[in-house]
Amino acid sequence: MNAEYILAGMVIIPVVIILAFRINAAIVFLSLCLGDVLVQFVAPDAHQFLTLFSAEVPKGLDSGNGSIKILLLLLPVVLTAIFMVRTVSGYPKLLLNVLPAIGVGLLGTLLLTPLLPASASQSLIDTNLWQHLKDAQDIIVSTSALVCLLVLWLQRPHAGLLRGKHKKH
Question: For the whole model, what pTM was predicted?
Answer without folding.
Answer: 0.86
